[in-house]
Every structure is written in C-alpha cells, then in structure tokens.
Amino acid sequence: MEQSKALAALSALAHGDRLDLIRLLVQTGDGGLPAGEIARTLGLSASRLSFHLSALEQAGLLRSQKVARNVIYAVDAAGLGAIIAYLLNDCCMEHPEVVACCRHDRPDIPAEARLRRPFRLPEGQGAEGSTKT
C-alpha cells in the first residue's frame, strides 16, 4: 500500500462517528445497510452521515451500491484489511510484540472478552459520548 493511501485511510478512521460506522458495518457483512438505517442506528443527521460515508468511501474503506431508491453501504473488507496489513507489516515490520497484541487467543484476555460482541451505541450517544444533532 502506498503511504498516501494509508494516510487517507487512517485519517478517515480518526473520528469517533466513523469508527462507530465501521464497527456497525463490519457486523452486517457483505449485505451492508441502507443509509437511513445507519443514520437511525448511530443517531446522525442525514447530512452528517453523508459527510462521514463519503470520507470513508473515498479512503477505500466502504463501498456503496444503489438498490432501487436506497444506497446500501458495506465495509470494503479488502480496503480495511489492507490498512491493517500496512500497519502490521510495513510500519511495524511484523514486530513480534506488536503482532502478539493482535492475537485473539492472548492469555491475558479472558475468553469471554474475546468473543465477538455486537455493536451497541447508547441511545443518542456517539463514540465520545456526545449527543448527536
């Protein structure tokens, strides 16, 4: 991955609402969600959501598909995987301690904490705990 693409992806991820959006869409899989449902789930206005979706799509982390009158958004798994791989392989040079921190079977993390937990956002709250408008 080129450094400029990595910086664009990392910059796009450097916002609480966008991280919430990625977490939500990762769980929905390839089917994705319509923009309206994403807005309701995250408590974002349509204009604010559009801004965040655009930033993530331009960074190669989301893909969209028009279906009838809806636009369906889903995570671009290859794009998300590429930025993770870039950080682990290119930046960290596969440093054993860094790679060990990313393992699901780490002995210092209780088994129940390693289970995939569904995304839940407190009603009207964002990643930083602020009320959405």
From TrEMBL:
The keyword ATP-binding belongs to this UniProt entry's keyword annotation: no
InterPro entries associated with the record: ArsR-like_HTH, HTH_ArsR_DNA-bd_dom, Metal_resp_trans_reg, WH-like_DNA-bd_sf, WH_DNA-bd_sf
Keywords linked to the UniProt accession: DNA-binding, Transcription, Transcription regulation
Record protein name field: Transcriptional regulator
Disordered: region residues: 113-133
One MF annotation (Gene Ontology) recorded for this entry: DNA binding
The HTH arsR-type domain, residue ranges: 1-95
Pfam family, one: HTH_20
Domain of life: Bacteria
Keyword hit for Transcription regulation: yes
Organism: Fuscovulum blasticum DSM 2131
